[in-house]
Amino acid sequence: MTPDILSDLNERQREAVEAIDGPLLIVAGPGSGKTRLITARIAYLLNVVGVSPGRIAAVTFTNKAAREMRARVESIASYQAPRLSMGTFHAFCARALRQDGEAIGLDRNFGIYDDSDQLDVVKRGMGELEIDTKQFSPRAILSSISGAKSQLLTADGFRMRTASYFDEVVGRVYERYEILMARSDAVDFDDLLLKTYFLLSQRDAVADKYQDRFVHFMIDEFQDTNVAQYAIARLIAQKHRNLCVVGDPDQSIYSWRNADIRNILSFQNDFPDARIVALEQNYRSTQTILDAASRLISANSQRVEKELFTDNGEGVPIEMAEGYDEEEEAQFVLREVGSLTRATAGKSAQYRLGDIAVMYRVNAQSRALEESCLRYGVPYQVVGGMKFYQRQEVKDLAAYLKLITNPHDDVSLLRVVNLPRRGIGQRTLDELRRLARDSEISMFDAILNATPDASLGGPLVSGPFTARAARALGDFREIILNLQGEVESCNLVELIDKVMDRSGYRKHISESNDERADERLDNINEFKNAARDYLDLPTPEGLNAFMENVALVSDVDSMEDRPDFLTLITLHQAKGLEYPVVFMVGMEDGLLPHSRSLDDPASLEEERRLCYVGMTRAKERLYLVRAFRRGFRGGSGPNMPSRFLLDIPQELVSRPDATEPKPAERTPRVESPKRSRSTSMGSFPLASPEELRSEMRGGGFTFSRRSRPTTPAEFTSVRRSGRRASPPTRRRGARRPASEAVPAVATGDKVRHSTFGEGMVMSCEPSGSDFEVTVAFTDGGGVKRLLLGMAKLEKIE
DNA sequence: CGAGAATAGTTTTTT
DNA sequence: ACTATTCTCG
Length: 797
Prior knowledge:
Layout: H1 2-7, H2 11-18, E1 24-28, H3 34-49, E2 56-60, H4 63-76, E3 85-88, H5 89-100, E4 111-113, H6 115-128, H7 138-150, H8 155-160, H9 165-183, E5 186-188, H10 189-202, H11 204-213, E6 216-219, H12 227-236, E7 243-247, H13 262-270, E8 275-279, E9 281-282, H14 287-297, E10 309-310, E11 319-323, H15 326-341, E12 356-360, H16 366-376, E13 380-382, H17 392-405, H18 410-416, H19 426-439, H20 443-450, H21 467-486, H22 492-502, H23 505-510, H24 517-531, H25 539-552, E14 566-570, H26 571-574, E15 579-584, H27 601-615, E16 618-627, E17 629-632, E18 635-638, H28 673-678, H29 689-695, H30 712-725, E19 750-753, E20 757-767, E21 770-777, E22 782-787, E23 793-796
Helix pairs in contact: 2-3, 3-4, 5-10, 6-7, 6-9, 7-9, 10-11, 10-12, 14-27, 15-16, 17-18, 17-21, 17-25, 19-20, 20-21
The chain binds a DNA duplex (15 and 10 nucleotides) through helix 5, helix 19 and helix 26.
């Protein structure tokens, strides 16, 4: 048994597996076989040491990671795997609270609020406190509250350390927020952690139970845990002290979600006897990719030195390319994808689509890529995006279901109380809210109070409500009470159907004029399908379990690896994944690094880590692609190449052909969407690499640290060829107004300005009777937009 | 009360 | 550009 588990491991990994006594910190570089290691360690504990699976907890960052880990353990120690506690921190805590939360006054049927539910509560609290939502953004307040919770600060605690007027406001809202949440028997994501912490720190009996039970506690992606998460783990591990944390400071990319990289330091302080193992051998990438990534990350000042190495060969150089705009950028990617996946005379294709991922900073970037995929007939999957459980119809239906187990859930009630229309309008709801607030009860209780049961007879004397409003509220009350009565007598899927029918929601959708009505019904069927997994539980428990799953599992996790789909994915979501071929698009200042991080060195370093994460996903081929200009909120502006590109040594990058390529003369090889969609994978129209290179004149740019990355000639040619390479279809004419007048300068010209110094013209667009010229000034002046007639620009050279 | 129009804000990343 | 919220009118 032992040799089996240990034989595939290198010395360091083996050391980490066998170090089962006492605290352990594993610093695991990218591709260092971390998952394999954790799996092996669990298998070792089970099969060699003989630890019972019920006494091991392993928490991960995503559900997907947990599932994979469980599957891998299963392959080694099959029958034991189901009894392991494996999942995300949030799922782990939800379970603890469901089981023992009553000890701190939590209702057994508590519901879990997601982000948008939370925002509703914040807004409602602000409304009650008469705080102007225009003066204080509810989102900003929510984010402060969330930050406080992640640091284990309750409203009381927060208010004691109020430092600014804004904080004072936040404190008041937070206080109100807690009340509203309690009244709804609801917890949010942060509460799952916060309340678990309080459960363990304030209830000794409960703490004892967990401390006794979990002899081994492991945390994956430790660099992305927040203070609350670490505190929980520390508490649970207090007794046995077998806390094993695995992480890589260089891959910490969630500080905006309150992840606190200082946890690693805290760990070393709290457990001074901790053993530290560093995994530096990379099994994933080529030496070239690894070198480039290492150089990039070494530019960060806040880091622990780490020397990655690999036995993998040097591999091929990194490719860089620039398109004129995001459309052309996408086209470049798609053509390259085509040549990588196309079988040529006698030779089978180099890669399958599933081997390739396109990564980007923000979701919005997926659009141009999707359009290109459609045009080229390339099947693709966008990871994330609009999440299934966040779709309107799904949330509506879920709200009804939540009300069945927990009618005090005010957010859900407000969501569906007038859906479909029942004649319950703003006035009635305001009144209802006031009633609830005055008596400190949930809105459903307020409805019960205000609408006496019709069976009692007598006139509907209904307090503040008009007879009509009271009747409408009574209808709603009956729907919910009625459905509650059904829970015992039918299964979950039947229950969902009953909800759909009795609430009138099915009718509401099918009779709506919404062109997406069918799609919505499909989604609801999908939702019903998901519910089938819970049919073997009695309906009340099944419903609870299902709703909990809906709250805690995003469909990112349920993404399958489909071998014949191109993957489009954000850099954040790509963490933990690997692909033979990776395209990183949008390699521009303002996108990566994101514009919101430019003025803060710490967040700039996080952006660099994000870039590092992306690069290190690649096993064999890495493309760094950018667009010269990019559409943004309707408009469009030029972008400078990402400063991170400057950190990548030139010798690792593919050089453009020494012979100056001829300007692209061909007509663009783009088929109409209709035709290419029906074209089979093997034969869709793609340029050969040579053609690509000549078309994408930016291909192979390398930058030196001293000069700004582009020369005028390069930019001009890119622009020209860019225009020509663009598909003739769907030209958004308004974006490129043709003007009769001819400006005195052109893109690529070098110019001198009296105050800004020398620079290069990046674009020149008609603006009224003048031209708006965008100039990138070399001497740190940055990019400026100037009116040609006003700014005295002197053309040089 | 509800429907449609006007307007404001948004978008970094997600358990 | 796109959506969500607020405003205005029937």
